[in-house]
Amino acid sequence: MPERLYARVEACYLQAEAFFKQRFERPQVSFKLRGQKAGVAHLHDNLLRFNPQLYRENREHFLEQTVAHEVAHLIAHRMFGPRIQPHGEEWQLIMQGVYELAPERCHTYAIERRPRTRYVYRCQCIERDFPFSAQRHSLVRKGRRYFCRSCKATLVFTGEQRVE
Question: Do residues 107 and 54 make contact, with C-beta atoms less than 8 angstroms apart?
Fold first, then answer.
């Protein structure tokens, strides 16, 4: 599956080397990214992580835009140092000047959201629900307490669950 993606990473590096007239160390590439992010550049580890599901579902745009987007982060970090903004002018320069691509900050890939169980909590002062995630609910079961900002009372589990 990832052969074309590896080739695109290499092509992006070759373009950057020709533009800046210097060699760049190639990053490690991982396909262990899940969730909403299409890609992540780990600047200090020289690592690119990509979401294999979003790659499969959006292959051509992913190869063209997402790979260049993440490589541009690593190149900008090497060229301009660690104090630059993630999507600042240096990164935009690379996207436009080197790759001739629009500097899009975020992808627009369709993401399937899984239903999540919420645990309903309430306080004494208002008829308002506080839906807790499973993780937060388990912390309450281990003794953690959460308080209403209005009345300062402890939020209490109603026994009710709902799927969102």
Answer: yes
Q: Is 156 helix (H, G, I), strand (E, B) or coil?
A: strand
3-state secondary structure of 111: coil
Residue 80 sits at the vertex; the CA angle it makes with 27 and 42, to the nearest 5 degrees, is 35
Q: Which residues pair with 162 in a beta bridge?
A: 118
> Domain end: 98, 131, 147, which one?
98
Q: Which residue range(s) make up the domain with 135?
A: 117-163
**The model's pTM:** 0.72
- 125 and 86 both lie in a single domain: no
Catalytic residue at 164? no
Do residues 52 and 66 lie in contact, with contact meaning Cβ atoms separated by under 8 Å? no
Q: Among residues 3, 10, 25, 70, which one is catalytic? A: 70
In the predicted structure, residue 164 carries a pLDDT above the cut 90: no
